[in-house]
TrEMBL record:
Family stated for the protein in its record: Belongs to the short-chain dehydrogenases/reductases (SDR) family. FabI subfamily.
GO MF annotation terms: oxidoreductase activity
EC numbers, comma separated: 1.3.1.9
InterPro entries noted in UniProt: Enoyl-ACP_Rdtase_NADH (IPR014358), NAD(P)-bd_dom_sf (IPR036291), SDR_fam (IPR002347)
Pfam assignment, any one: adh_short_C2
UniProt pathway annotation: Lipid metabolism
Keyword match Lipid metabolism: yes
Source species of the chain: Planomicrobium okeanokoites (Planococcus okeanokoites)
UniProt xrefs under Gene3D superfamilies: Enoyl acyl carrier protein reductase (1.10.8.400), NAD(P)-binding Rossmann-like Domain (3.40.50.720)
Origin organism lineage: Bacteria, Bacillati, Bacillota, Bacilli, Bacillales
Listed name of the protein: Enoyl-[acyl-carrier-protein] reductase [NADH]
């Protein structure tokens, strides 16, 4: 890996298992020499995250829970990170959730509760995390969020998550505008579809993978490594002039 992130510390939020895009980001950052801190949504992920982290090159010892639907929990999580690490140089937000019944069928049937849940976890979480992370990034920093083209245009079945991703992408721009004065950059990576634990929640996911191979300019699907390497770029000084941007790592599918 040409870019070095030695001596820098990044928080990665949302590793669930070895297929997670967050794990692709973790591996690329680890290869770049970064020191990593991990947070997971609930205890049921703790063991798999700890086992995965043990396979990395670096000694990444801080692994803690963070329930992004609780202001107190987010505040506590970043209080612990401040105590243990002092400062951080950036953060990867790889967090999203919607009820499966809201990820199929007619969007007009979306429930109030399902809509707000998707927004709460998949979109507002970036804002509350940025609020509590910014004091730890006094010398500037870089925040990267994960999004999907279904937040820019309609794709069948993506429904309520598409609306949440649209809000996430606009939040990236408003956070970039706000945090720029503190030297913190905020960007999104719009990844092509990747088979993960989360993709199991989206109806007819397999057909979209096939369509990407058929129609995308590069005629191949996106890999977690490709997303991870773009994250390294966004966390490095090579992207120091970029903020408020959404970079598509999708074999070019977004141009169609
Ligand atoms: C019609 C579009 C097909 C390609 C979708 C690519 C994709 C796959 C996964 C994505 O991330 C989530 C994350 C949580 C999510 O909600 C879930 C996931 C599993 C179970 C469950 O109850 N909810 C749905 C998608 C995502 O934002 C985008």
């Amino acid at each position: 890996m040409s870019i070095s992130l030695k001596g820098k510390t990044f928080v990665i939020m949302g590793v669930a298992n070895k297929r997670s895009i967050a794990w692709g980001i973790a591996r690329s950052l680890d290869q770049s020499g970064a020191n990593l801190i991990f947070t997971y949504a609930s205890e049921r992920f703790e063991k798999s995250v700890r086992d995965l982290v043990a396979t990395l090159e670096g000694k990444h010892e801080l692994i803690l829970p963070c329930d992004v639907t609780s202001d107190e929990d987010v505040e506590k999580c970043f209080g612990t990170i401040k105590e243990q690490a002092g400062k951080i140089d950036g953060l990867a937000h790889c967090i999203a959730f919607a009820k499966t019944e809201e990820l199929a069928g007619d969007f007009s049937e979306t429930s109030r509760e399902g809509y707000l849940l998707a927004q709460n976890i998949s979109s507002y979480s970036l804002t509350i995390i940025s609020k509590y992370a910014k004091p730890l990034m006094a010398e500037g920093g870089s925040i990267v969020a994960l999004t999907y083209i279904g937040g820019e245009r309609v794709l069948p079945n993506y429904n309520v998550m598409g609306v949440a991703k649209a809000a996430l992408e606009m939040s990236v721009r408003y956070l970039a505008a706000d945090l720029g004065k503190q030297g913190i950059r905020v960007n999104a990576i719009s990844s092509g579809p990747i088979r993960t634990l989360s993709s199991k929640g989206v109806s007819d996911f397999n057909s979209i993978l096939h369509e990407i191979e058929e129609k995308s300019p590069l005629h191949r699907n996106t890999t977690p490594e490709e997303v991870g390497d773009t994250a390294v770029f966004l966390f490095s000084d090579m992207s120091r002039g970029i903020t408020g941007e959404t970079i598509h790592v999708d074999s070019g599918y977004h141009v169609l």
